[in-house]
Amino acid sequence: MTIEKALVVGTGLIGTSAALSLREKGVTVQLTDIDERAVRVARELGAGREWTGEEVDLAVIAVPPHLVGERLAALQKQGAARAYTDVASVKAGPIADAERLGCDLISYVPGHPLAGRERSGPAAARAGLFAGRPWALCPGVETGAEALRLTRELVSLCGAEAVTVGAAEHDSAVALVSHAPHVAASAVAATLTGGEDVTLRLAGQGLRDVTRIAAGNPLLWRNILAGNALPVAAVLDRIAADLAAAASALRAGDLDEVTDLLRRGVEGHGRIPAGSAVAAAGSVAGSAVAAAGSVGGRLAGRG
User: Fold this and answer.
1) Contact call for residues 225 and 233 (beta carbons, < 8 A)
2) Are the beta carbons of 138 and 95 closer than 8 angstroms?
3) DSSP E strand boundaries for the chain
4) Residue 120's pLDDT is what?
5) Are 112 and 181 in contact (CB under 8 A)?
6) Which residues, 6+ apart, have CB-to-CB distance to 207 below 8 Å?
7) Residue 31 and residue 11 in contact, taking contact as beta carbons nearer than 8 Å
8) At 36, is the secondary structure helix, strand, or coil?
9) ∠ at Cα 90 (70, 207), nearest 5°?
10) What does R_g of the chain's alpha carbons equal in angstroms?
11) Distance, CA of 290 to CA of 267 (rounded, Å)
């Protein structure tokens, strides 16, 4: 093990979970966040101690996508670490920001663990969050071997599987396997706001499965979607077209077209790798998501 000291910048769900994972492996972890309460909660959970400004082996930047570039620039100016990575849900935007701000790209490895929960904040963190999950790494042509080695070690210590992928391919993939499904789940859940109490008492497990991720923090997801808007919109267009066709067919009594969607949904669901957190069975909306196709099966998951 060569990561002896790590810095986690941002003590939300992902950052604190990474810190807890590293602590279990004996790594000394320091924490920093603009939210002092979040740092306190993470510290009380055993995720580490507050950062005193000393240099560490690897800094993990766990902040919203639009803040990654400026955090990276500030940390590098301070000489905070030998290498840096981030865990933002989109990659093209943060990389462009890092380039624009003149960051040292040799020591920076853009990353994204495909894991999460519908709950947010440090209190929801757990050391096993990344176990068996894919962790996308998007090194560029300037990325140094030492930074990549340390980041791969981080992934291994967290129990995840590193998947090397280009930034643009990553963003297209997560639009399909994570971001658009979240919007689709939210659309299904939003229809329930006008439901009668007696109606909602009849809700079964299928509805709970389809809408579970809709409980995520709306402001967090606004930032994620803003950073990946066009790829997500393209997937949602395909989902919307399938749903509109299904509605039209049902009005016309054409069950063959609806059955075709359901069959394509079964086929799409079958392409999700075993153990993946993405599942959208139990509704026509879920079938539409699954039927939309796959450009990122290796990255199937939350996040």
Assistant:
1) no
2) yes
3) 5-9, 28-32, 49-50, 56-61, 81-86, 108-109, 111-113, 134-137, 161-164
4) 81
5) no
6) 188, 282, 283
7) yes
8) helix
9) 135
10) 20
11) 8
- Is pLDDT of 118 > 80? no
Convert the pLDDT of each residue in 16-56 to its tens digit.
999 999 999 999 999 999 999 999 999 999 999 999 999 99
184 — pLDDT class (breaks 50, 70, 90) = very high
Q: What per-residue confidence (pLDDT) applies to 283?
A: 41
Residue spans of beta strands (DSSP E) within 132-253: 134-137, 161-164
Please tell me the distance from the alpha carbon of residue 34 to that of residue 295, in angstroms, as a whole number: 36
Q: Specify the pLDDT at position 197.
A: 86
Closest CA to 214 of 271, 150, 289, 155: 289
Please say if the pLDDT value at position 284 is more than 60: no
How many other CB atoms are found less than 10 A from the CB of residue 182?
Answer: 20
What is the Cα–Cα distance from 77 to 194, expressed in whole angstroms? 52
